[in-house]
Design brief:
single chain; alpha+beta; Agglutinin, subunit A; eight-stranded mixed beta sheet; 15 helices; 23% helix; binds 2-acetamido-2-deoxy-beta-D-glucopyranose
Amino acid sequence: MNTRTVSLLILVLCLLLHLIDSLDTLAPNGTVKDGDVLISQGRRFALGFFSPGNSSLRYVGIWYYGQPERTVVWVANRENPVNDTSGVLAIDRHGNLVINEKSSSFPIWSANVSSMSSNDYATAQLLDTGNLVLKHDLSEVVIWQSFDYPTDTFLPSMKLGLDRRTGLNWFLTSWKSEDDPAPGSFSYRFEPTGYPQLFVYKDRAPYWRGGAIIEQLPGGAPEMTNDFISNLTIVNNATEVSLMYGVINASVLTRYVVHESGFLKHFMWQDEGQRWTEFNYHPKELCDYYSKCGPNGNCGANTADQFDCTCLPGFEPKSPGDWYLRDGTGGCKRRQNVSLCRSGEGFVKVKRLKLPDTSTAHVNMSLSLKECEQECLRDCNCMAYAIANKSMGEHGCLKWYGDLVDTRAYSDLGEDLYVRVDAIDLARYRKRSSLVKKAVVAAISVSALLLLLLGSLMYCLLLKRKRADRRGRNPLVSVTTSSTYCDELPGLKDLDSNGRRKTDLPLFHFGTVAAATNNFSSANELGQGGFGSVYKGVVDNGTEVAVKRLSKYSGQGNEEFKNEVRLIAKLQHRNLVKILGCCIQEDEKLLIYEYLPNKSLDSFLFDDTKRSLLDWGKRFDIAYGVARGLMYLHQDSTLRIIHRDLKASNVLLDVALKPKISDFGIARICGGDQIEGKTKRVVGTYGYMAPEYAIQGRFSIKSDVYSYGVLLLEIITGQRNSGCYHLNPCCHLIGHVWQLWKEGKCMEIVDKSMDKTYSDEEMVSRCIQIGFLCVQRYALDRPTMSTVVFMLGNADAVLPTPKQPAFIDESSFNGDIQSTCNLTCSVNGVTNTVVEAR
Ligand SMILES: *[C@@H]1O[C@H](CO)[C@@H](O)[C@H](O)[C@H]1NC(C)=O
Ligand SMILES: *[C@@H]1O[C@H](CO)[C@@H](O)[C@H](O)[C@H]1NC(C)=O
Ligand SMILES: *[C@@H]1O[C@H](CO)[C@@H](O)[C@H](O)[C@H]1NC(C)=O
Ligand SMILES: *[C@@H]1O[C@H](CO)[C@@H](O)[C@H](O)[C@H]1NC(C)=O
Ligand SMILES: *[C@@H]1O[C@H](CO)[C@@H](O)[C@H](O)[C@H]1NC(C)=O
Ligand SMILES: *[C@@H]1O[C@H](CO)[C@@H](O)[C@H](O)[C@H]1NC(C)=O
Ligand SMILES: *[C@@H]1O[C@H](CO)[C@@H](O)[C@H](O)[C@H]1NC(C)=O
Ligand SMILES: *[C@@H]1O[C@H](CO)[C@@H](O)[C@H](O)[C@H]1NC(C)=O
Ligand SMILES: *[C@@H]1O[C@H](CO)[C@@H](O)[C@H](O)[C@H]1NC(C)=O
Ligand SMILES: *[C@@H]1O[C@H](CO)[C@@H](O)[C@H](O)[C@H]1NC(C)=O
C-alpha cells in the first residue's frame, strides 16, 4: 500500500465524515454552495439550489428527497434569483441566514433575524417535516423557521392563520408560473374578521371561500375533513386563529398547493407508480366561485353550466333584465314595501346551504338556537341567523347584518340558514309547507296500502316461480315533493352560458332509431331497467348502438329533457358509457349510447360458466375502474351527479373487460334530480340502496358509496346480495360475509372460481374491508369515493375498522317499513311506492 492510496482513503473518509456531519445541519460557519444539498434525517426532504421549470435562474428551495421529479415545497429567494451558480446559502456573523452571490457585496436574500449576542451561534437544520429551522446553539431557541414564511405549499404540521398578538400571518401564495416562483395572483389565507373563514383571493378580491368553521371544520370545504388520512386542528382563541393538519400515518405524503391557476389542490403520493396524484381541488363548480349570484342570491345545487341563480326568500332580482340574460352577479334585493320591523315578520329556514360570508357576522357561542332566533328577531337589522356549532347540541349563534353574500345550495351537505322575511312571505311559506306536509302524509298512507297489496300479490307470484329471471330487479320508484320557494324563470334553459342556442347534441329521427332496432323488437332487447328497456340497434353506417327507450313517466318537458341530456353527454370518462345522442317524438324519449358487446357485469359475475373468465386481476380492475368513474361523477365532473342506481347490471364491460358505468344521470335526465323544491323521483334497487335512501328517500353521494360497497362485495364473492333488510344476517350476503369477517374467516366466501388467481390474500381481504367501510350504517362514517380510490390504489394505506353494516340493527327501521321491506325483498317485479324525501 503506497502513500497515495492511503491519502486517497483518508480523503474519502474525510468526505464521508463531512457528509454525515452536515447531512441535515448547516453549522455556524458552514455554507451550502450551489450543487450541495442538505438532507433531512429521515431522508424525506432536501434543501439546495435549483432552477424551476425551464428557467436557468437559481433559487434556494426545499423539495422531496429521492423522487423522480423534483417537487418544490418552499422557496427562499422567490423574487431574487441568482444569475449563475455562484450562490451560497450561509449563516452570517450575526447568526442570520443569508444567500450571497459573487457579484454582490451584500446578501440577495436574508431571513432578517439579528440581535445575536457575540458568544452564541446559530445553526440551521432541515427537519423531516420540511421545515428549515434556525436555532440558537446554546439555548436551542428557534429564532426563525421556514414554516412561518410559507410559499405555495401547505404541509402537515404547518400552520395557516394569524397570530393575533404579533400580527404574523401564515398564508400561501401561488407561484407566478411554473418557471417563476415569485408571488403570483392567488393567495390562500384566513380572514379573521367576524367569524374566521378561509379564502382564496385573486389579487385582493375574494375568489373562493372555504366557508365558516362550523363544527371544527371549514364548512365550504367539506372534503377537507378529519378522515383516516389526516386530522385537522382549528384554533380560534384570543391569541391565534389557525388551521393545522396532521397525517395519521406519518409515512403518508400529502400536500396542499395554491396553484398558479387559482385552484387549491390536494395531492397524495402514490408509492406505487412513484407519482403524485391530485386527490381533490377547489373551487370545483361554478357555484363555488365567490358570490356567483351576487348579494342575497343563492347558487343552485345543480351546478351545471346552466343558469342556476335564485334569490333567497324575501328577495327578488335586482335587475330582472340581467337576470333574464343569465347574469346573476347583480344579486337580489328586498321586495318592495316589506316591513321587517315588529310587524309580524319571521324566519324561513333554507336547508343545506353554504352559509353566507361571515366577515360581517356576529357570533355568540353561549346562545342556543331558540335564543338566537329571539335575539335576531328583536334586532331589526339582523337579516339571518344560523347555528355556529352543531356539535354542542345546536349551540352558538351566528347573526348576519346587511347583505347575505356567497351562499350556495348543496344536494347533500351544508347548514341551515334562517332568513328574515316579512309577514306576507312568512304566511306564504307556512302555507306551502303545510300543504306539502298534508300531501306527503296522504301520499304515504295511500302508498303504504298500495305497497302492501302489491307486495302480497308479488309474494304469491313469487312462490310459484322462485328463481326466475332476475334481470330487471325490483327498482323502487317513489315520487315526492318538498317545499320550494324559488321559481325559475322560463325560457332560459335552451341558451348556453354565453346566451347562444345550444346545438351540440345529435338528435336522431325516431324513424331511424325504430328502423335500427327492428321496430324495438323483443329480439333486439338487451335488458330492462328502472327507467325503461334497452335495445340493440345498427344505424346507417353500420355502427352498433344501444338505445334506451325511457318509460313514459318522466314529468319533464322536451326542452328540459334535451338540456339535461346535453349536460350529461358532456361528461366524459373512460369508465362511463358514452351518450351519442337522443331522440324525442311526442311521448317517446330515447337515449342512444355506444354499444358494448360484452354486456353487463352481472352477466359474468352470476353466471356459472362465465364467472371463471374474471380472475382476481380483472375483478380488481373492474372494481377500481367503477370507483374511478363514480368519483368522477361525484366530484370531478362539472355536474355533481349522484348515480342512485349503481349495481352490477349497470356496469357494462367493453371488449377488454374494462368497466363502464351506465345509466348515470338518468334520474336527472328524467327530471328527478332537481334541487330541493321540485318533484323528486327516487329510483334504486333494493339490496344496493343505502338504508337512509330506501327508507327516508334521502340520497347523497354517500348512498352511492353504499351501493358501491355492495357491488364490491358481490364482485369478490360472486354472489348476489339478496336485497333483503332482514334481521337474520344469514339470509343476506353482507350479513354473511360480515359474520365470517368478524370470525376472521372471510376468505371462505371468496368466489371459488377465482381460486389461485390471487397470490395475495391480504389484498382480497383489504378489498372486503373497503367494502364494509362503504356499507356502514351512517352515511357520515362512509368514506367518499376519492378516499375509496385512494384505499384501493395504495396497498399500504392503513384502513380504519368498519362499524357494523346497515342492515342488522333493527332499530333503524320502523315497523311499517320493516314489513314492506320483508315483502319487497323477495319480489322480482317492479314496485312503486311513495315516501317522504326528507
Ligand atoms: C466562525 O468564523 C469566525 C471568523 O472566521 C470565527 O471567529 C469563529 O470562531 C467561527 N466559528 C466557529 C463555530 O467555527
Ligand atoms: C419547457 O420547454 C419545453 C420545450 O420548449 C416545453 O415543452 C415545456 O412545456 C416547458 N416547460 C415548462 C415548465 O415551461
Ligand atoms: C442578472 O442578469 C440580468 C440580465 O442578464 C442583469 O440585468 C442583472 O443585473 C443580473 N443580476 C445580477 C445580480 O447580476
Ligand atoms: C428582509 O428585509 C428586507 C428589507 O426590509 C426585505 O426586503 C426582505 O423581503 C426581508 N426578507 C424576508 C425573508 O422577510
Ligand atoms: C390559543 O391556542 C393556542 C394553541 O392551542 C395556545 O397555545 C394558546 O395558549 C391559546 N391561547 C389562549 C388565550 O387560550
Ligand atoms: C394527528 O394524528 C397523529 C396520530 O394520531 C398525531 O400524532 C398528530 O399529533 C395529530 N396531528 C394533529 C395536527 O392533530
Ligand atoms: C308601496 O307603498 C306605497 C305607499 O304605501 C305605494 O304608493 C306603492 O304603490 C307601494 N308599492 C308597491 C310596489 O306595492
Ligand atoms: C352572548 O349572549 C349572552 C346572553 O344574551 C350575553 O350575556 C353575552 O354578553 C353575549 N356575549 C357576547 C360576546 O356578545
Ligand atoms: C363546538 O363544540 C365542541 C363541543 O363542545 C367544542 O369542542 C368545539 O371547540 C366547539 N367549536 C367551536 C368552533 O367553538
Ligand atoms: C403507514 O403506512 C406505511 C406505508 O405507507 C406502512 O408500511 C405502515 O405500516 C403504516 N404505519 C402504521 C402505523 O400503520
